[in-house]
Amino acid sequence: MGAAIILAIAAAAVLMQPAPTDRVILLPGPDGEVGAVTVKSTGGERLLDQAYAGAAVDRRGGIETVREDAATVRERYGAALGAQPDRPVSFVLNFMLNFATGSDEMTPASRPVLDQVIAEVSRRSAAEIVVIGHTDRVGTEAANDVLALKRAEAVRSALLAAGVSARIDVAGRGEREPLIASADEVDEPRNRRVEINVR
Amino acid sequence: MATKRWRVAFAGLVAAVVVLPAWAAAGDDGRIGTVKVVKGGVSILRDGQTLVATPGAGLQVADRVVTAADGATGITLRDNTLLSAGPNSSLSLDKFVFDSTTHAGVMDASLKRGTLSVVSGKIARQSPESVRFSTPNTTLGVRGTEFVIEAAGAED
């Protein structure tokens, strides 16, 4: 009799426990900008597009929109957020200013940038570098990919020569990511640049 | 006998050629990301082995990153996606392909349990439909920037 009552109480306690839920909460970026996330379950779909908008989804797929705030997020997700790696930062070498005309040889003007890169690398845990070459839109896309990679390689060599101790990858982005939008075949010197991304 | 050896060599060559683009897409050594932050107990499960995660450790496709009750970890992927997991978490990096020239790629990660913060990267900016996060009960489509995920799943 007593055992049956205890069993019934235990069963009720299990039933009354909320079903395990998964949660997603959209956060504002460092500049306050907010993206969007869609959350899908077997029970439906929600679009989250406002800061601190969230969705709670239970094991049966039941989906519910929730509204959180900064304090709750800090409390529940502080450990995860606290382990976030430093955000990648980019340093830019303009080709006209930092390279000798018609060559991959870097001019003394590039030295302060290299010093900044070295300082950033030493500040970070397990720093890595990606050197990304960009071109203007003169020439074909394929030719610009080759050129972009060649410029990135030159800067990689300069970084190694300057004694940078980090893993350095290179990428040639060609004409796909202009600083200044231009029509095709426009000679835009500001787009001829090498970006040093430290992460 | 000699023919057989040649056949094996040829098959090896074909395999090498076929495999090459996948390696190239993941970086020279198959690295898809790097562990940047380690607090407390953090391990990487790879091919049935458990490796201790340390800052600088490389990650590969199909790795599972697991944190202990006192653990937390931060990872930067090759497309600059930032992932960080809180205690008692289990995160699988199911798919990752990134072309650093075009920014085309695919990313698929699943949080089996625990907490995860995400700052999306270059793949999500270029082709948001190719980035997916999942938990035992949900699938997320990402249209950029930052969010946290929690997976209740007590059992592994």
Layout of SSEs?
The complex is a heterodimer of chains A (199) and B (156).
Chain A: H1 2-16, E1 21-27, E2 37-41, E3 44-48, E4 53-58, E5 63-67, H2 70-82, E6 89-94, H3 95-98, H4 111-123, E7 128-134, H5 141-161, E8 167-174, E9 193-198
Chain B: H1 2-26, E1 33-39, E2 42-46, E3 49-52, E4 58-59, E5 64-67, E6 72-77, E7 82-85, E8 90-98, E9 105-119, H2 122-126, E10 131-134, E11 139-142, E12 146-151
Parallel strand pairs in B: 9-10
Antiparallel strand pairs in B: 1-4, 1-6, 2-3, 2-5, 5-8, 6-7, 7-9, 8-9, 9-12, 10-11
Tell me about this structure.
The complex is a heterodimer of chains A (199) and B (156). Chain A contains 5 helices and 9 strands. Chain A is of the alpha+beta class and 199 residues long. In chain A, a hairpin with a 2-residue loop joins strand 2 and strand 3. In chain B, strands 1, 2, 3, 4, 5, 6, 7, 8, 9, 10, 11 and 12 form a 12-stranded mixed β-sheet that branches. Chain B is globular. The relative contact order of chain B is 0.13. Chains A and B meet through strand 1, strand 2, strand 4, helix 2 and strand 7 of A and strand 1, strand 6, strand 7, strand 9 and strand 11 of B. Strand 2 of chain A pairs antiparallel with strand 11 of chain B.
Class inferred from helices and paired strands of chain A: alpha+beta
Report strand % of chain A.
Answer: 25-35%
Radius of gyration of chain A: 26 Å
For the sheet with most strands of chain B, the description reads: 12 strands, mixed
Beta-strand segment tally of chain A = 9
Mean pLDDT of chain B: 86
